[in-house]
Design goal:
CATH class of the largest domain: Mainly Alpha
Strand order of the largest sheet: 3-4-5-7-9
Strand content: 15-25%
Structural class: alpha/beta
Distance between the termini: 44 Å
Length: 323
């Protein structure tokens, strides 16, 4: 402990940014839960222990969302606003809230975010996003094979903030009572939860698995880009995306993955062989003939895809319970 008379009293002698737990550690807070249930829990509460401790493993995820996030007196009901208000450098908290709300709603390009938050030009929105990046609340994402460029998308880093801005922020003024929260949970949040998981969280779980799987992989993320192919005798450009791609330190592609997390209403929907053609097209575009192809799914795979896995050494089917 530094005394009042010390020359370093009152001065910062070092700093340490504590990172959230990786999703694989969430099992300590959800004992007995299946991998599927743990992935949903991480998609909602992320890896911050302060958030995760609100989960009662016996009561289940829905009850944790209800009690900690949606109820007017819930511990985390005002957490994002409180988090931003504690930063003395943020003089316009409402604009930062608007940035996060826009990104959570699917507006991820700089120019689009500027319009959504009422700024006329991209340059006016950029300082707000840069500050959120410095706070590790927002990050820029590029196709994993590129470290920079124009194909940038902004994303919310913390799953809980993404959940809050997706579900709580748009309805905050209407969630005035516990009864309101109960109805909203059953009618809106739970029916849309699997779609929410599929849009970012499950992809990040699969990317993490690819990174841990290969000793040579140094980075994993998404890839997207335009690919020209001959269709009906004409060259056409179409946008292609790979949900999970692992690369080595030279940027060479080691693996490409397709991730599907269907909701409970379509639980019998199987990951089919059509995705194989997509990944093979991307693999050819990236000149990575030796890259393995992975298919990640919450529920099932088509019989044809299972046949292809048995026939080929480069095709792998990974259900959620193996992640």
């Amino acid at each position: 402990m530094v005394g009042y008379g010390a020359t370093t009293y009152g001065r910062r002698t070092g700093s340490l940014r504590l990172r959230p737990f990786p999703w694989t550690e969430i099992g300590a807070f959800t004992p007995g839960w299946s991998a599927e249930e743990r992935i949903r829990a991480w998609a909602v509460f992320g890896g911050i222990p302060y958030y995760l401790k609100e989960i009662d493993a016996e009561a289940g995820l829905a009850e944790a969302i209800r009690r900690a996030v949606l109820y007017p007196d819930g511990l985390l009901r005002e957490e994002p606003r409180f988090l931003l208000s504690q930063e003395s450098r943020l003089r316009d908290v409402d604009t930062y809230m608007s940035c996060l709300r826009a990104i959570a709603g699917g507006v991820t390009r700089l120019g689009e975010i500027a319009q959504r938050i009422g700024k006329g030009r991209s340059e006016e929105a950029r300082p707000f996003l840069e500050t959120l990046e410095e706070m590790a609340l927002v990050e820029r994402r590029y196709p994993v094979t590129k470290a920079s460029g124009r194909k940038v998308h902004y994303a919310i880093v913390d799953p809980f903030l993404r959940f809050w801005f997706r579900f709580v922020a748009p309805r905050e003024s209407r969630l005035r009572s516990r009864r309101d929260a109960d109805r909203y949970l059953e009618e809106a949040v739970l029916p849309q939860l699997d779609k929410f998981v599929s849009e970012d969280a499950f992809e990040r779980v699969c990317q993490d698995w690819l990174l841990r799987r290969s000793a040579d992989a140094t980075e994993a993320g998404r890839w997207w880009g335009s690919i020209r192919r001959r269709e009906e005798g004409r060259l056409r450009s179409r946008t292609h995306e790979a949900d999970a791609v692992a690369v080595d330190e030279r940027g060479a592609v080691l693996a490409l993955g397709s991730c599907k997390w269907p909701d409970r209403a379509t639980a019998n929907h199987a990951h089919d062989a059509g995705e194989l053609d997509k990944l093979e097209t991307i693999r050819a575009e990236l000149r990575a003939p030796n890259a393995h192809l992975y298919f990640f799914d919450r529920t099932a795979f088509s019989p044809r895809l299972r046949e292809l896995e048995a026939e080929r050494d480069d095709v792998h089917l990974i259900p959620a319970d193996q992640l």
